[in-house]
Design a protein that fits this description.
- Four copies of one chain form a homotetramer.
- Chain A is built from ten helices and no strands.
- In chain A, α1 runs antiparallel to α2, α4 packs antiparallel against α6 and α6 packs across α10.
- The longest helix of chain A is centred in the first third of the chain and has 32 residues.
- The first copy, chain A, has about 220 residues and is mainly α.
- At the A-B interface, α1, α9 and α10 of A face α1, α9 and α10 of B.
- Chain A binds a DNA duplex (21 and 21 nucleotides) through α3.
Chain lengths: ~220, ~220, ~220, ~220
DNA sequence: GATGAATGAGTGTTCATTCAT
DNA sequence: AATGAATGAACACTCATTCAT
């Protein structure tokens, strides 16, 4: 399982470099092979095509990420079920939400991001032109489901049906922004430690934003 | 006399379509010309090269946008100079900040976005590979200057020197997010009216976020 | 006659620069027009095509040069009729040949070259691709006629028929080299004065060469 | 096993024809491929670009030529070290210089030229626009070093410092002319035998020229 | 006299991909 | 498991030239 062939390994390594440098579209298979010291035929023995090569680089990490995101936000959703929104101060809200617990979870997400930093960056910022170019959107969708439940809970709605068009719009935005936060951390912090520290401010921003929205008259 | 020649017009029109469909990199000049019913030579009579063709599509709008952004955020900065951050409720803060006035300005930005919706989308989501690919970052930088001043005022700092690494990081994020808000509005709302309405929630989110950050202990 | 139209003048001037910089083939009419501040149509009003434009630049000078060369070498031929080759020292030969007179004529050629230096260089070193690319060969042919007579005289032949294949070959070479001398002077000396001075050594070389050939056993 | 693949061979062959016919600049890669019966991609499999294709045609021959020229002129320089110039007759000089020995060497140069006649012609008369366009000049420079030493010896100078501007000019010319002699032989004789025969007259011319210069008062 | 517009064929070069061996 | 060879379509771009106005 871990005895991946030498050549395949080298190819993946060089593909990583090429895609990271130039992005999916501008990356040249010819170049990857040259760098790896093999011919294009070898590449096509291991990988179906350009897309598949890119996929081989990111698939595992992407799956892991999807799992984590789902788990994270399921837990968060559950945790916040409790707090129907009132007019509390941010400090109070943070407490009510079990901020400390939540942070622990978010930290585990961030930790994952940095464990796979290179691939995550590839996936989120260098995939334009591949079938992964809208992957962030897919993640947004996943987050959105859970945020919808959370939003309903905080608004004190009885059912999904009470959601207005405006509710849905802002939920989508906040889901989108949650993903943007992760992307931003992964691309702007140089290691986990920094990532975790900066994340705290980012989460404060996000939570503040949520209550800004929830408490709007 | 008609200001722009038939052919040039047609060329710009077809270029708009091609770039919007495929993005800058994948767009084919050959294709644009074929669609416009002229030879490539004709295109090169009107435009220096691919970049210049793209530029002709977006330059005016971009300039206008830059102006508006600068004006918008200068005014906002001035408006908020007054309110050194305390521990107020969001409602109180919104009032203190002159939320209503600010909205008026933001609305004018949004109105501009929708007046040039097509081009704005082109510029912000289809320019990869052209010299405009980092245009959003450039706009972030502009916003960041003003947000830095605003942050200092709200934090009650005496000078820029008091800004920690974490302060700078979150300021950059919030600047980035402001631009994201505009992009999101331009790409997710179908007209000005909807844009202006959704913007109000987005601004509530943003202001909430700011105070979430400012009031963190 | 001298009131050549402004535009035509400007065009010729810019063509001169372009051809001199890039040579005939790489020169771009588009570029010439741009530099002259007119459109290609204007160029085609004055000149039939690229070749004709180049021709307009060099025709007069070329005619003058042809005249001079003919005259020069007719006179030289006549002057040397007298000296059937013996086994004299170079000094003696120079005298016998009326070296001083000859120099005077050659000087007038060189003077002409430098009066039209720019065009001469254009013609002799930048015309590849045009119909003038073998112009030097044409000049060689002219010189060759006269050198043939001179050679016959010096060898003491009774008629052209005595010329062997080897005689003809070396005559052709020496004619070729005479032209090369002029090209070399025109391209390596910065003004008439230097040209005339260096020419003296060159002629000594040439005359020495002739006698090297003539006196070979 | 056959050392060079069919296609590559064919490509080189057709390239040879195209370059010889039209010169480097006007030669069309498309045409070469069409003639060879392959697609442009095939050409680019074997050759990096147009220049490299041309280079593949001439590189070996050029290296060989450079070697020969260096060897030839080193030997010649050594051979003439002995004869500080007096006022001898050409016949005497030729003897003193060991004319016969020298001829043997020159003959070997000429033999090389004819062994690679086609390529030599390509290199010296069809390379304009490629990186080889000034190759003759480079060869002149090499010859010039040796001729400078020879000139100093014949003039009886003690050091390089005694060389005047005029000395340098004529040395450069004579170096240039030596190369011209080779070009002329390669382009005007149809085989080695003729080349070697004509070369003898050419060398007589050259040596005569040298003494014409050296013995000038 | 000159413009502005347009042609159409051409350039060298790059690409992902295929396949017999 | 991998090579070496080749395809064929595409690319952005440049050129000399033409012609109605």
């Amino acid at each position: 399982m871990d005895d991946e062939k030498e050549t395949k390994k080298k190819l993946l390594e060089c593909a990583m470099n090429e895609f990271s440098e130039k992005g999916y579209m501008k990356a040249s298979l010819r170049n990857i092979c040259k760098e790896a010291g093999v011919t294009t035929g070898a590449l096509y023995f291991f990988f179906k095509d350009k897309e598949n090569l890119f996929g081989s680089l990111v698939a595992d990490t992407l799956n892991g990420l999807n799992e984590i995101i789902e788990n994270h936000f399921i837990e968060e959703a559950v945790a916040t079920e409790a707090l129907a929104g009132g007019d509390m101060s941010i400090a109070a809200l943070a407490e009510a939400q079990g901020f400390e617990d939540d942070m622990a979870i978010a930290r585990s997400v961030v930790r994952y991001l940095f464990e796979h930093k290179e691939v995550i960056e590839l996936l989120l910022t260098k995939s334009q032109g591949s079938c992964y170019e809208h992957i962030a959107d897919a993640m947004v969708d996943k987050v959105e489901e859970h945020y919808t439940r959370m939003y309903i809970a905080m608004k004190g709605y009885k059912s999904k049906k009470e959601l207005t068009k405006e509710d849905k719009f802002i939920i989508h935005w906040m889901s989108h922004d949650q993903i943007e936060i992760f992307i931003h951390l992964a691309t702007h912090c140089k290691n986990v430690k920094e990532g975790e520290k900066q994340m705290e401010n980012m989460m404060a921003y996000m939570i503040g934003g949520w209550y800004g929205v929830i408490n709007r008259k």
